[in-house]
Amino acid sequence: MQTAAATLETPTELKSLAKNWWLVLLRGIVSILFGLLAFFWPGLTLFTLVLLYGAFALVDGVIALASAFGKERPAPTWWLILIGIAGIGAGIITFFWPGLTAVVLVLFIGAWALAHGIFEIIGAIKLRKEIDNEWWLILAGVISVLFGLLVLIFPGAGALGLIWAIGAYAIAFGVLLVGLSFRLRKHRPEEPAEPEKAAAA
């Protein structure tokens, strides 16, 4: 149980993440929506899904960078910066490298998920002494690593199987981020009270 002193002296990294908890929530919602789209879009092809995944990675990367460079942060969180760069890079490669086949694009997805998961785990380790239940972030990282390895090992699996795997991963990852966002919300620093206006002379 946290003491009042601990609340007032919230570590800088946790304080910054908690202040931008809604960005973590937004990443989770975007991920869940993408996963639901993968399951319920009738006639969705693997190539189209991969392009959508590129858009998802790009958006996720931008939001991660926004979280890393939040207000009142003396130094950005490097692991979030790497997640942001990886996502933006994956999105750009997906959209602007002409002639890539669906299988090659799937390999890019696997590599992105693997790197993404490693950085999430690193972030959870850095936060383990600052927040309870950091396992939300660790589990999100582990799921990303396992999904990335699965895709890299079996890139030529059936299109339907890959679509379901990508959709299930996106939903599970999104749910974990939503859970983490509400944990961070509880650690938001309290806004200082405005000084009372001086009485008129």
The main β sheet shows up as: none
N-to-C CA distance: 46 Å
Task: Please state the oligomeric state of the protein chains shown.
Answer: single chain
Rounded mean pLDDT score: 76
The helix/strand series, from N terminus to C terminus, equals HHHHHHHH
Strand portion = under 5%
- In the CATH hierarchy, what is the class? Mainly Alpha
By helix and strand content, what is the structural category?
A: mainly alpha
Note down, in words, how this protein is organized.
By secondary structure, the chain is mainly alpha-helical. It has a single domain, classed as Serine Threonine Protein Phosphatase 5, Tetratricopeptide repeat, CATH 1.25.40. Helix content is 73%, strand content 0%. It contains eight helices and no strands. The longest helix has 27 residues. The chain starts with a helix and ends in a 16-residue tail after the last helix. The relative contact order is 0.17. The N terminus and C terminus are likely disordered.
Tag the structure with descriptive keywords:
single chain; 201 residues; mainly alpha; Serine Threonine Protein Phosphatase 5, Tetratricopeptide repeat; 8 helices; 0% strand; elongated; disordered N terminus
Structural topology:
Blueprint: H1 4-8, H2 12-19, H3 21-40, H4 46-68, H5 78-96, H6 102-127, H7 135-153, H8 159-185
Helix pairs in contact: 2-8, 3-4, 3-8, 4-5, 4-6, 5-6, 6-7, 7-8
Briefly characterize the structure.
This protein is an all-alpha fold and 201 residues long. The chain is 73% helix and 0% strand.
